[in-house]
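writing this on my phone so excuse typos. first protein, seq and then structure
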Amino acid sequence: MKTNARLFWLLAAFYLVAAVGYALVGLNEPYQGLSDGGPSLGGLKVEIIGTAAITMLSIMSAFIAFYLGKTHRSQGPVPEDNPTAKISDGESEIGFFNAWSWWPFFLGLFGAVVFASLAVGWWLFVIGFPLAIVALIGFVFENSRGQHAH
């Protein structure tokens, strides 16, 4: 995890340098915008969308790096950080997963129908949203049957 955090810090720095370079290259190119002058940042002609997108990429990489570094400090070294570790060192229990659950499939299917409704039409949302809610409830409560458990 420590190595991954360092890699994401390196990526964040690279994306920040790339954003500055992108903005500087945009300053040197002749502006061919609207007749009213187009977008400007403090009177400078900067391609705002690309610069903002690459800067946000740097910020997102920094978020991931911060999280991984904080997790490494609280959790300690993991087998992935040890170059002499064996495969058996990392085979602890990750969590509980249902072996034959159909709820994730239906939740993904009806979620896709709901998001497809943005392009197709709202009538599809009326069909997909209640089904997605049923699938979500089924997925959340599939192991909470109380005295009716099998």
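second protein below, same order as before
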Amino acid sequence: MAVKVLVPTPLQKLTQDQATLECEGNSIAELIESLEHSFPGIKARLCDEQGQLRRFINFYVNSEDIRFLEGQNTPLTPGDEVSIVPAVAGG
């Protein structure tokens, strides 16, 4: 069983207009590599030049912010749901 990935609207042009994907990966880092393999160019939108997650992109695993877990090393298990959420600024 794969991990379910919820893709935000701004990134759906890179996923062939798919809002929900099934991907493989034992961690967030592996999941990003899997996404890049299936949808070339998406990693550049999620990670900076050093391969670190961009500050304005938030990842949640089963509604838990990975910044409070293990970041890119957060483990994933089959059936997990990963949400990619762009940060919203305003005032």
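The chain has a mean pLDDT of 94. thats all i got for now
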